[in-house]
Amino acid sequence: MSLVVAETLTTNPPVAERSPGELLPVGRRFRLVLLLGFLTALGPLTIDMYLPSLPTITADLHASAAAVQLTLTGTLAGLAVGQLIVGPLSDALGRRLPLLAGIGVHVLASALCVFAPGLAALGTLRVLQGLGAAAASVVAMAVVRDLFSGLAAARLFSRLMLVVGVAPILAPTIGGQVLRLTQWRGVFVVLCAAGLAILVATAVALPETLPGNRRRSGGLGGTVRDYGRLFTDRVYVGLILVSGLAMAALIAYVSGSSFVFQDEFGMSQQQFAVVFAGGAVGLIGATQLNVRLLRRFTPQRILSGALLAGVVAGAVMLVLASTHTGGLAGVLVPLWTVLAMVGLAMPNAPAIALSRHGEAAGTAAALLGAVQFGVGALAAPLVGVLGVGAVAMAIVVFGGMAAASLALWLVVRPRRLPVEAVEPAVAVAH
Fold first, then answer.
1. pLDDT in tens, 161-214
2. How many domains are contained in the chain?
3. pLDDT above 90 (res 109)
C-alpha cells in the first residue's frame, strides 16, 4: 500500500513542478484527502460531542461547573501531550503504526468512559481519549507536509479546516440527539463507534507517506535535538504561539458556550446545538474563503488582517456583554465574527510554520499541535474560574485574540518574513 506514495516522494521533483501529492492519481488523492478529513475530525468530535451534556453531567455527578469543565481540560491536555509523543515517533517509525495505535487507545478510552463511576475517573479517561486523538491530529498534519508545501499546503489546510468546522456542527447536534434517546454516557458509545470506524478506514486506506530513507532514528537524544532546533527558529516559535492563542479564543467559546446559552439565555440542548452550529458555519465559510484569498494575498497578509479583525470583534463582544447591551445578538454577532477570523488564521499559521521544517514534519507538527491544545487547555478552566458567563467567555476570547496578534507582530514580524519562506511552490498551487 505504501509503495506508490513512497516511490513518488523519493523522486524529489523540482519546486517548479507538481508536488508529490499532485502526482498521485486523482481518485487515490481524493480518497487520501477524504481520510485525512476523517482523521482531522476525530479531535473536534471528541471535544465537542459531549458539550450539550455538560450541565447534565454537573448535576448527575454532583460536581461544580468548573470541575466538569476540567474534563474538557483533560482532553485538551491529552491532545497536547500526545502530539509531543506521537510526532517524533511518526518521524522515526513512519506515519501508519503510531496512528493506528493512537486511534486504538481512543476507542478503548471511549468505551471505558461509558462506565465511569465518577468525575475523577471520567476526567482520567478523557485524558486518554485526548492522547489517542492526538495521533490522528498530528499524523494528518505530517502527511500533508509529506505531500504538499507552500501555498498548496495552505490550501489543503483550508480544506481540512472545513472538516474542523463541520465537526463542531455535527458533534453537539449528534450529542443533543443522543441525549434525547439516552443519558450522557450514550455520547461515549457514539464516540467509541466513530473511533472504531476511523480505525478500520485508516488500516485499509491510508498509505505510508514517509519512506524509510527519510525516517529519523536518533532516539530520545535526536528527538530532544529536533525540539531544540525548532525552539531556535524565532518565526516558527512565534507562529505556534499565534496558533495556540487563537485556539485559546476558540476553546473559550467551546468550553463556556453551553453554560452561557443554556443557563444564562435559557436555551434547550437542541437550541444550543443550532446556535453552536451557526458559529461553525462562520468558521467553515472563512476557511473556504481563505482558499480564494490565497490567489491574491500571501498567507502572512491574511493572517495579519484576520487577527486584527478578531481583536476588534472580541473587544466589541466584551463591551456589549459587560454592559448587557443587545441581549443574545450582542453576544452572538461579534462572537461569530471572531470565529470567522479564527477560521482565516488557523490554516495559514501552520502552513507558514511547517513550510520551514519539512525535514522533521512530524516533530514540527507535534509541537505546533501541543501548543495549540496546551494553551487551549488553560483557557477552558479559566472561563469557569471567571464565572461561566458571557462576560467571562468574552474576556478569554478577546484576550486570546489580542495576545495572538501581539505574538504575530512582536515575534513573527510578518513584514520581515521573506515571501520565499511561505511560497516555495507557487506553481504547485495552481
1. 666 656 766 777 788 888 888 888 999 999 999 999 999 999 988 878 787 777
2. 1
3. yes
DSSP 8-state symbol, 11: T
In 3D space, the residue among 412, 344, 373, 314 whose CA is nearest the CA of residue 73 turns out to be 373
Distance CA 140, CA 41 (A): 10
Read off the pLDDT band of 418 (50, 70, 90). low
Task: Determine contact, residues 394/321, Cβ cutoff 8 Å.
Answer: yes
What CATH number corresponds to the domain at position 28? 1.20.1250.20
Residue bearing cell 495521533: 135
**Cα 346–chain centre separation:** 8
Domain that residue 53 falls in = 3-429
Closest C-alpha among 132, 144, 137, 138 to residue 33 = 144
Please tell me the predicted confidence (pLDDT) of residue 338: 94
How far from 349 is each of 145, 336, 398, CA to CA, in Å? 14, 20, 19
**C-alpha span between 154 and 346 (Å, rounded):** 10
First to last CA, the chain: 28
Helix segments in 148-214, DSSP class H: 150-181, 185-205
* Contact between 1 and 208 (Cβ < 8 Å): yes
Note the pLDDT of residue 4: 35
- Identity of the amino acid at 364: A
